[in-house]
Design a protein that fits this description.
Blueprint (H helix, E strand, L loop, with lengths): L1 H33 L3 H41 L9
Helix pairs in contact: 1-2
Family: Belongs to the LEA type 1 family.
GO biological process, one term: embryo development ending in seed dormancy
């Protein structure tokens, strides 16, 4: 059950990240289209790349938080022991 919740949260985070990435790329293209010089176009590209990187980093942070929540739930529910395993 927790695995399903984690997958659902990951999917939602991925959709949010994809939307942020798409928005950053659209903003970059709009800014580049209105740029008057090569330098302004390069700056627009750099800003777009930075926004994409930030969105991807946020996705990884969200996924890590989901894993942490799932592990924490498992530890509290099962006392840190996996059923069926003898270590």
């Amino acid at each position: 059950m927790e695995h399903a919740k984690e997958k659902m949260k990951d999917g939602a985070s991925a959709a949010k990240a994809k939307a942020s990435i798409t928005q950053a790329k659209v903003a970059e293209k709009a800014e580049a289209a209105t740029a008057r010089s090569h330098d302004e176009r390069e700056l627009a590209h750099e800003r777009g790349a930075a926004k994409v990187a930030a969105a991807e980093a946020q996705l990884h942070q969200d996924k890590a938080a989901h894993r942490e929540d799932a592990m924490s739930h498992h530890i509290h529910k099962h006392g840190g022991h996996k059923h069926g395993h003898s270590h």
